[in-house]
Task: structure prediction
Amino acid sequence: MLHWLSGFFQGSDVSNLFSYITFRAGGAMVTALFLGFLCGRPLINFLKGQQKDGQPIREDGPKSHITEKAGTPTMGGLLIIGTMLVSTLMWARLENIYIWMVLFVTVGFGLIGAVDDYKKVTLQNSKGLSSKLRLSIGAVIAILAAAIVMWAQSAELSGALAFPVFKDVLWDMGLLYFPFVILVIVGSANAVNITDGLDGLAIMPAMIALSTLGIIAYVIGRVDFSTYLDVHYVSGTGELLVFAASLVGGGLGFLWYNAQPAEVFMGDTGSLALGGAIGGIAVATKHELVLTIIGGLFVIETASVIIQIFIFKLTKKRVFLMAPIHHHFERRGWAESQIVIRFWIIALILALAGLATLKVR
Result:
């Protein structure tokens, strides 16, 4: 919206400034952060008033959670989504199809999470929506996102999978592209959801992943940079840096209230939305495989649950004291702050490794 207003100053320095994606990304992040600080406290007070008992705590989880986290309101993801929406609509070029695709995915998964959270706090049941229903709706959202991306991209890239390191390798997946995108977007959404088990644990790695993917989107959306780095040029993706910056700013505003001890949880409202956004950017930028590196922490968390279930069904023995793996370290005596900060460090290292694939050819 602000980009359109710059037309009134055509030919001036103001108009020139608004033409830079990096400037608008910075403005988007600051705007979302400011709105997060401004709206955070009123939202928390509202959620506390609506949720008398807060988010239901798993009875089979660490005992400390029952005493320390009981009564904490959930659905704090509304703060992240709300500030992101306002900031993105203010600073992004709204004629860009990728902006609307990632907004659709993010808000769509956020709505799934919001209904799930609402059901949990209303019935005081930690189960919420059925897994089948969540996955089914998520799959529909992912299919529509895949169709938008295929329509927006060139014939060479449409429905193709790009391989990191190998600069000229593209696999035309045909109809397999749709289930693949479902796996990426729905898998990413649920992986972030699984990781969201400790105060501040999911939000920082999500912001790290979004920052990294935003940089990648900016690089491959510029002919000069993509040519220099020998990566596939995807026209229009540079604008996704503005969207990613909005989510990072909103995430920082949320983290102010989510740092231990958390005053509010993001809930499925936030974790599913963030994961969907991460998956959506990866699909738009043809960096789905690199996402497994950038979001490696989420992969590890999800894998720990899969391994735990598989081995237990096979042998009736547990690999971890508790899954996801962050609860395993809790059971081993690590302090919550130790786990969170060490996982942040791991997320940062993996994100840098994923970013390095731009240069390794």
